[in-house]
Write a structure and sequence with these properties.
Elements lengths: L56 E2 L31 E2 L2 E3 L2 H7 L4 E2 L2 E3 L6 E3 L5 E2 L4 E3 L13 E3 L5 E8 L8 E3 L5 E8 L6 E3 L5 E2 L3 E4 L6 E3 L5 E9 L6 E3 L5 E8 L6 E3 L5 E9 L6 E3 L18 E3 L7 E4 L5 H9 L10 E4 L4 H9 L1 H8 L87 E2 L4 E2 L4 E9 L2 H7 L4 E8 L6 E3 L5 E3 L2 E3 L7 E3 L5 E2 L3 E3 L11 E3 L5 E8 L6 E3 L5 E8 L8 E4 L5 E2 L1 E5 L4 E5 L5 E2 L3 E4 L6 E3 L11 E4 L6 E3 L14 E4 L6 E4 L5 H10 L9 E4 L4 H8 L16 E2 L5
Parallel strand pairs: 2-4, 3-5, 4-7, 5-8, 6-9, 7-10, 8-10, 9-11, 10-12, 11-13, 12-14, 12-15, 13-16, 14-17, 15-17, 17-19, 18-20, 19-21, 20-22, 21-23, 22-24, 24-25, 28-29, 29-31, 29-32, 30-33, 32-35, 33-36, 34-37, 36-38, 37-39, 39-42, 40-43, 41-44, 42-45, 43-46, 45-47, 46-48, 47-49, 48-50, ...
Antiparallel strand pairs: 1-52, 26-27
Length: 769
């Protein structure tokens, strides 16, 4: 059933408490100002600027808008008077296997799937198709009975969302050009074994939830994905014989990069890249002259005890490949330069670090300064107005020490006297070894950590003549058994750990490593341990799993995890820890998983607050009575499920900036106090169909789900299948047409732009059929 979208569902009883009140508690974190909408029952605010009939589409409330033509009979208009598509243009799965089938498909504005098996070598243009879900656009032999696709080119200039994939392979032997001028979101892009493909273009792509794999396309010359912000999993190029330049100007995060056997590739430009989840692997690129990622700060598993680490081999020799990494910490620049699998003491490649003439010149010329300004807020969303979320503008939590975006650690607060290794580096005292623009040259031995220095001042870990870590504090091993206090003392002077630490049955109850800065490896256990507290006060990166193991109850006594300085973490899986009640990672920016099951103490309630977290893969909270709130004010991308089940005291799930993805299953069940989920900025959701968002048996007064920017058709699916107002207890979807979303827009205070509040709508004009 295609329900009318613009009727707000807000039917709480008169005695029901207002879920917006839950946001008031966030003021303790300087997060609450201006967040509350009008209480239920108050009058709605001013009329929105855009409205049905103005000729411009707002996806949160409309599927289409032909202005005065709305409501005319098909085919004079494809849009009803309520700005919904007429049934004639809403299509099932399309099989385009002839010119007649292609002509018939031109009426379609949406389709469940699009598959090409054209029997004629023609150029295909489908200007009217805008959304494909739950399927994708394919020209591949997913079914061995499929016939080849003989299309020479395919263009879909107004397609903005193809949920499942863009997938073409050897079954499209004549295909030369693939163009998706407006595509914003898709799961995977797979272009493989096409002998004639020359150009792939998706210049407005925002993100992929899965992989980008472009393999064995010998004629491919152009890859235009310049708008891509996030590639969550693998970006893989392989056997592209004619590709010479790869430029991803806006890419800020990628899971891993694998580029192999591209014999003419000489330039790779990723000027906005900030974080890598796992690794960059470059193999057999004999003409590669430069790989430029001047803003790369979080390198994932640069070095690691297994084959998930970075690897360079068979790169350019005359001249040697040059890597430009102007923001990596000094210790990682050293690893890049020296380690055999990387540049191998300069015999395989060279590295331009923050003190290099290349980086200094770039800053001097203003090039890097411009790039830094663009990404000062890590995900500065200027120019990407989606849904009802004002994605332009800065995000400022109002917290001191620059917690917003990249500002912390980059403006001088890194300078900390290094003599007191026991001082807990919280409250802005974290010694992040991230390069900054400095007017004066670094002075080794002054006790202040400055650009180009690994350390300064603490003679137990630092060579104060070179400001490099002493050899003995870079601890490398395959596996270290931690099973006594004496074992712990061996690790206490480690500033860097490369290898796995395995906890035994006699491990200390408190695992605190005061001088450790980065651990490339896991902290794991295969037995039940007495660990109560994990405290790593100076660690700024932990790209391996911490507190992991095959058993589900290795840490039954765990009470606290404290990493006050960590920026990047692989993730956390805490099982069977009934006393767990402290989880402090206030500066975390990029993470993989957060799983807490059969843990927590209802008598010691706590909140999960991540002020600066931008990217996470998964949240799973099950049977955890101690958690009251999950607060992710900066999160823009969460790939995998948000699953909260049987958490007796959880009240609020707050993720208002989730705009750079579409795929995230939501499963909320048996949480008797849960009253509010805020995902105000999410534009599309995973749809099977129906949309994969479910809620049942939560607060008796009702659960309010704020999806103020969600595509209107998916809002209808959600109300019919996942969040129903007539359920017991009820569930209410507040969408773009609701008074609460409109009130939130009106109440936006000056200086709070971009914080799950609303401004410009995502508007676009579609060609008429």
């Amino acid at each position: 059933m295609r329900a009318l979208c613009c009727i707000a569902v807000c039917l709480f009883g008169a005695a029901a408490s207002d879920p917006s009140k839950l946001l008031e508690g966030l003021k303790a974190f300087s997060l609450g100002d201006g967040l509350g909408g009008k209480t239920l029952g108050e009058e709605g605010g001013k009329k929105e600027k855009n409205f049905c009939g103005d000729g411009v589409v707002d996806l949160a409330t409309e599927e289409c808008d032909e202005g005065k033509a709305n409501g005319l009979p098909w085919p004079e208009s494809f849009c009803t008077s309520e700005c919904m598509y007429v049934p004639e243009v809403v299509c099932p799965a399309l099989l385009i296997n002839s010119t007649e089938a292609l002509e018939e498909a031109q009426r379609c504005r949406t389709a469940e799937d699009v598959e090409f098996q054209l029997n004629t070598a023609i150029d295909v243009v489908m200007p009217n198709l805008t959304i494909v879900l739950p399927g994708g656009v394919i020209g591949s032999r997913e079914d061995p009975t499929n016939l080849p696709n003989l299309a020479k080119s395919i263009s879909m200039p107004n397609l903005i969302f193809a949920q499942d994939e863009i997938d073409f392979d050897e079954e499209s032997p004549e295909l030369e050009t693939l163009e998706f001028a407006s595509l914003m979101y898709t799961d995977d892009i797979e272009l493989q074994d096409m002998p004639n493909l020359r150009t792939f273009s998706a210049p407005k792509l925002v993100s992929t939830d899965g992989d980008v794999q472009i393999l064995r396309d010998p004629q491919l010359v152009t890859i235009d994905m310049d708008g891509a912000r996030i590639i969550e999993d693998q970006f893989e190029l392989e056997d592209l014989d004619k590709l010479q330049v790869l430029k991803l100007s806006h890419l800020e995060h990628v899971g891993r990069v694998d580029i192999e056997r591209c014999p003419l590739l000489h330039t790779v430009e990723m000027p906005s890249l900030y974080s890598v989840g796992v690794a960059i692997n470059l193999v057999s690129l004999p003409t590669l002259k430069s790989f430029r990622a001047p803003l790369l700060t979080l390198s994932g598993r640069l070095v690691f005890p297994d084959d998930t680490r970075w690897d360079f081999s068979e790169l350019g020799t005359n001249p040697l490949t040059v890597f430009e990494f102007c923001r990596l910490p000094a210790v990682e620049i050293r690893f890049l330069e020296e380690r055999e699998e990387l540049c191998s003491d300069g015999t395989k490649c060279t590295v331009e670090g923050p003190l290099s003439p290349a980086c200094k010149e770039a800053l001097k010329e203003g090039k890097a300064e411009k790039e830094e300004k663009k990404t000062d807020d890590l995900f500065d969303l200027s120019g990407l107005d989606v849904g009802k979320m004002p994605l332009g503008g800065k995000f400022d939590l109002g917290l001191k020490e620059g917690l917003g975006g990249l500002r912390f650690g980059l403006g001088g607060e890194t300078g900390k006297k290094g003599g007191d290794k026991g001082e807990k580096p919280d409250g802005g005292k974290c010694s992040f070894p991230v390069p900054v623009l400095e007017k004066k040259a670094a002075v080794c031995g002054n006790g202040i950590l400055e650009t180009g220095e690994e350390c300064d001042g603490d003679g137990t870990v630092c060579d104060n003549e070179t400001c490099k870590f002493r050899t003995e504090v870079v601890c490398e091993f395959d596996s270290f058994s931690l099973n006594s206090t004496a074992d712990l003392q061996e690790l206490e002077n480690c500033a860097v750990i490369i290898g796995d630490v395995q906890l035994g049955i006699a491990a200390p109850t408190d695992l605190e490593l005061p001088v450790l800065q980065v651990i490339y490896g896991a902290i794991e256990s295969f037995v039940v341990t007495p660990l109560k507290r994990l405290i790593l006060p100076g660690v700024w990166k932990s790209p391996g799993p911490l507190l992991s193991g095959p058993g589900l109850n290795s840490f039954p006594d765990l009470e606290a995890v404290e990493l006050p300085c960590v920026l990047q973490s692989f993730g956390w899986e805490i099982f069977g820890s009934p006393n767990f009640n402290i989880f402090e990672l206030p500066k975390l920016q990029v993470a993989r998983t957060l799983v807490i099951e059969d843990s927590c103490d209802a008598a010691k309630p706590f909140d999960l607050v991540f002020p600066d977290l931008r990217i996470r893969e998964e949240v799973r909270l099950e049977n955890c009575p101690g958690v009251r709130k999950l607060v992710d004010p900066s999160l823009v991308f969460q790939e995998n499920p948000l699953r909260v089940v049987n958490c007796a005291n959880i009240e609020l799930l707050f993720q208002p900036k989730m705009s750079l993805l579409f795929d995230s299953i939501v499963d909320l069940q048996d949480n008797p106090k849960l009253r509010l989920l805020d995902r105000s900025s999410q534009v599309f959701a995973q749809s099977t169909p129906p949309v994969r968002i479910t809620a049942s048996n939560n607060s008796p007064g009702g659960l309010e789900m704020r999806y103020c920017s969600l595509y209107v058709e998916q809002v209808d699916e959600l109300r019919e299948n996942g969040c129903q107002a007539n359920a017991d207890p009820p569930c209410f979807v507040l969408s773009g047409g609701s008074r609460e979303c409109a009130a939130k827009e009106e109440k936006q205070p000056a200086g709070s732009e971009g914080f799950g509040l609303f401004g410009d709508t995502f508007k676009f004009e579609l060609p008429k059929f």
